[in-house]
Write a structure and sequence with these properties.
With 371 residues, this protein is α/β, with parallel strands linked by helices. The chain has 2 domains: 184 residues, Medium-chain alcohol dehydrogenases, catalytic domain (Quinone Oxidoreductase, Chain A, domain 1), CATH 3.90.180.10; 137 residues, NAD(P)-binding Rossmann-like Domain (Rossmann fold), CATH 3.40.50. The protein has 11 helices and 18 strands. The chain binds adenosine-5-diphosphoribose and zinc ion.
Length: 371
């Protein structure tokens, strides 16, 4: 069924310049071909939003921030056939084109045809304009820090109605990335030892994934005692303060190195130290995203001699349409305690404060509720 409606006005968090963020009313066009309108009920504040605000990554400006969200379909454009008004959806920031060779090979996370990474809808356009009629780009093709979003049907994954929106929001990015890093990218075997460095939304999701597949031991590293306490409650078998302990020596002394090391900060010096944390044959998984243009130095002899690997991981090597419903069902079955990831729930206009908390490493994942 196709429904069409007039444009709506919706407050949005906009990144115009490095001077900061603003909340402004924007106009949101009706959904075009293959697009839907979604009423955002919850949207997570992710470090990738902070990377943009920090200027770590180049981005089109002005940009409507936000890329981790869940909501309800309120409107469908022409040629939308897989979703209907009233469906509950999780938004995935990696809307695949469905036509490139990587999509054909089932590797949607490596899609070369997506426009999401260019911060536009699939046809190169945006549905958002400011009060003067100037276009505003949707971050990662979504721009979820607003009440009413227009997204391609391919970016919206239907989920059971009983899934809480706050949990659904986290399934859009951090959980899919973290659990996917374990089960898809690294395919960690039962009983493997693993260290997780950085226990934010992504790192804690990695720990949950490791517990789910039966890794042991699971060592969590962070600078914050609160984050480490949460890591222990979600499955870490031991915790280390990165600023108080030499993590590499500790892992070598106590475990002879670990089978898997996951980096969930995006910090070059941590990445450089990962190969030496590994046992022979071990694997380092790069999940955190560094600033663009960063360079890291490794010891290639150690890598070759000890048969160690380094794996890059984007979006947990996940196919949103397959993996998000599976993760939602694991949560609903009580197998993934995703409520444990949720921190402060705040109104949308507190986005800047939530990003500041994230910058300072304060608290768990903030969720914004647009109104
Ligand atoms: N040693 C250990 N832990 C650290 C260090 C350090 N030197 N520096 C920061 N941390 C911890 C922080 O305390 C925080 O708990 O790393 C964690 C990072 O978590 P978040 O800021 O919440 O980031 P998150 O959203 O989880 O994303 C992590 O993955 O997808 C990428 O772009 C994302 O690069 C980012 C990374
Ligand atoms: Zn994210």
């Amino acid at each position: 069924m196709t429904t069409t409606s007039a444009p709506v006005t919706s407050d949005a968090v906009i990144f115009r310049s490095n001077a900061g963020l603003g909340v402004e009313p924007i106009h949101v066009a009706p959904p075009g071909r293959g697009q839907i309108r979604v009423d955002v009920r919850a949207t997570g504040v992710c470090h990738s939003d902070l990377h943009i605000v920090n200027g770590d990554w180049p981005a089109n400006k002005p940009l409507v921030l936000g890329h981790e969200a869940a909501g309800v379909v309120t409107d469908t454009g022409p040629e939308v056939d897989g979703l209907a008004v009233g469906d509950h959806v999780v938004l995935s920031w990696f809307a695949p084109c469905g036509r490139c060779l990587n999509c054909a090979a089932g590797r949607a996370w490596l899609c070369t045809g997506t426009k999401a990474l260019e911060n536009t809808l699939p046809d190169g356009s945006t549905a958002y304009t400011d009060a003067e009629g100037h276009g505003l780009w949707p971050y990662l093709g979504l721009g979820t820090f607003t009440k009413s979003v227009i997204v391609p049907e391919t970016a919206a994954i239907a989920v059971p109605q009983e899934l809480p929106f706050e949990v659904g929001a986290l399934l859009g990015c951090s959980v899919t990335t973290g659990v996917g890093a374990v089960v898809n990218t690294a395919r960690v075997p039962l009983g493997s030892s693993a260290v997780v460095i950085g226990c934010g939304g992504v790192g804690l999701s990695i720990i949950m994934g490791l517990k789910l597949i039966g890794a042991n031991p699971i060592i969590a590293v962070d600078l914050s005692a609160d984050k480490l306490a949460k890591a222990a409650s979600l499955g870490a078998t031991s915790t280390l303060r990165g600023d108080q302990v030499d993590v590499t020596s500790y892992l070598q002394e106590h475990f002879g190195g670990v089978d898997f090391a996951f980096e969930a900060i995006g910090r070059v010096s941590t990445i450089e130290s990962m190969p030496s944390m590994l046992a022979a044959g071990g694997t380092a998984v790069l999940v955190g995203m560094t600033a663009a243009g960063s360079r890291a130095s490794i010891d290639p002899f150690d890598l070759a001699d000890q048969g160690k690997s380094i794996l890059g991981c984007n979006y947990g090597s996940s196919v949103a349409k397959i993996d998000i419903p599976k993760l939602a069902n694991l949560y609903l079955a009580g197998r993934l305690p995703l409520d444990g990831l949720i921190g402060r729930i705040r109104p949308l206009d507190e986005a800047a404060a939530a990003l500041e908390d994230l910058r300072q490493g304060k608290g768990l994942r903030s969720i914004l509720i647009p109104s």
